[in-house]
Each structure stands twice: as structure tokens, then as C-alpha cells.
């Protein structure tokens, strides 16, 4: 009954094979590749993997990228399925003006987050933060309703925008400091605190909306570990939030 979960972001494709399509299933294999190398998956990373029985993926990259991944999936006898954001799924209600326009990664991560909220005890609001190519900060209330969220540039995009938009900024890596006193530290600190500032702001919005109840703050994405140490609030770093969401969706669909 093994299940393949795939997350195609704007920079990398991440995949994980699970023993079954159930939350908490054992991971049999996993990996990540840059989008430049996705045409080699079938002859490299996936070549010696036991054939998965089913798959579910989430894509925010282009149609062309999705098609190239589907070609690689021809290695096995499976139907490629990709999550499309919908008005409701697996206990989460989508409050976006146009639910289908919500990034599938955000939707799936929120469904994963909702599972973690309910697994930890009584229902409570949650803030779902994804720190990848772009950064998103999404709010879910106690009832599992997605209220809305922020999109901002990731660290890499912020620095590249500054480099190309100014004459005097180069972007060597600096350190995060309270009072940066050189250009490198000022840029690195500015990027990091832009992200933590957005998270703090959204946490305040959500707390005010929730009669003061403290939200569970869940951080995910390739660069989450770099930002998390500067976040002045209780939080959890969960690398697998999108995969957890894909497992929740798949198990809910099988149960219907
Ligand atoms: N180990 C690292 N060292 C330096 N920068 C990193 C590292 N990991 C991630 N980054 C930076 O963080 C950003 C997002 O990284 P990454 O591609 O790992 O995230 P992701 O969650 O896989 O993104 P996406 O899902 O959008 O593809 C990039 O701009 C990248 O430059
Ligand atoms: C915001 C990103 C790039 C984050 O990966 C992705 O979720 C996306 O392309 N979203 C579509 C637009 C939206 O979510 O409103
Ligand atoms: K992502």
C-alpha cells in the first residue's frame, strides 16, 4: 500500500515514500532535488525504489514542470494526482475569495497543520508559516477555517531584488544582529527580521480575532531552520508539514 507524496515548489521538488497513505505512516524513502534536475528522477533517485501503489502531489511550479514530473512517474503504473485548492477538504474550510486560487502548497500545509493541532489536544487557532522561495503566513481559526494569509519574498528573492535594484549593494552573507553595523549584516538581518516581523504581526491579528487565545505556530520550508531561532514566540519547526497534509488528504479521500 506504499504511497508517494510529492511537493513541487518554485526551487526544489521534495518527495517522500510512506508505507501507507495514513498520517504517521513510516517513511520508506525520501529526497529533494532542484527543479533543474527533475528529468533525471526516474533514472537516478527513483530508479531502485519499490513501486509506490498510489501518489498525491502538490505543485506551485509551472504546468511544464508538472508535466515533466509526470513523465518521470511513468516509471510506475500509477495515476498522477495533484491537489487543487478547494472550498473545503479534510476538515479545513477555505476562506480565500477564490478558493481555487490559493497556492496548493499553502492549502496542503494548512491541512497538515490542522492535523497537528487536533493531535495535540483541544482545537485552537494555528499560524502556518512556510519559508521557502517565497514566505507565506496563514491563519486558521479554532474551527479549522482558513481566515487569510500573507505572501512575502523569501530571503533569496529579497537579497537578489536589492542587488539588482541598487548601485551600492552586493549580497555577501552576513549575520543576524540587533544593530547591524556593516552592509552584509544589515542585509541578512533585514531579510530575517522582515520575515519574523510578518509572523509576529499575523500572530497578533490571529490572537485578536481569537479572543486572546494563543495560536499554535508551525514553521516549515527549506529555510525555516534559519529563521526560527530569531522568532520570539513559542513555535514548532515541522519539516514535513506538506507531506503530513498530503497524507491527511489521501487518508480522508480513501475513507469517504
Ligand atoms: N542551506 C541553505 N543555505 C542557504 N540558503 C538556503 C538554504 N536552504 C534554503 N536556502 C534559501 O532559502 C530559500 C528557499 O530554500 P529551499 O529551496 O530549500 O526552500 P523550499 O521550501 O524547498 O522552497 P520551495 O518549496 O519554494 O521550492 C532559497 O532562497 C534558498 O536560497
Ligand atoms: C505563494 C506561493 C509562491 C508560495 O509557495 C504559492 O503558494 C503560490 O504560487 N500561490 C498562488 C497565489 C496565492 O496563494 O494566492
Ligand atoms: K514550498
Automatic annotation (TrEMBL):
Its EC number is 2.7.1.33. Belongs to the type III pantothenate kinase family. The active site is at 105 (proton acceptor). Substrate binds at residues 96, 103-106, 183. Its main location: cytoplasm. A monovalent cation. Ammonium or potassium. Its cofactor is NH4(+); K(+). Pathway: Cofactor biosynthesis; coenzyme A biosynthesis; CoA from (R)-pantothenate: step 1/5. The lineage of its organism: Bacteria, Pseudomonadati, Pseudomonadota, Betaproteobacteria, Burkholderiales. Catalyzes the phosphorylation of pantothenate (Pan), the first step in CoA biosynthesis. PANTHER family: TYPE III PANTOTHENATE KINASE (PTHR34265:SF1). This is Type III pantothenate kinase. It catalyses: (R)-pantothenate + ATP = (R)-4'-phosphopantothenate + ADP + H(+). ATP binds at residues 7-14, 133. Homodimer. Keywords: ATP-binding, Coenzyme A biosynthesis, Cytoplasm, Kinase, Nucleotide-binding, Potassium, Transferase. It is found in: Cytoplasm. InterPro entries: ATPase_NBD, Type_III_PanK.
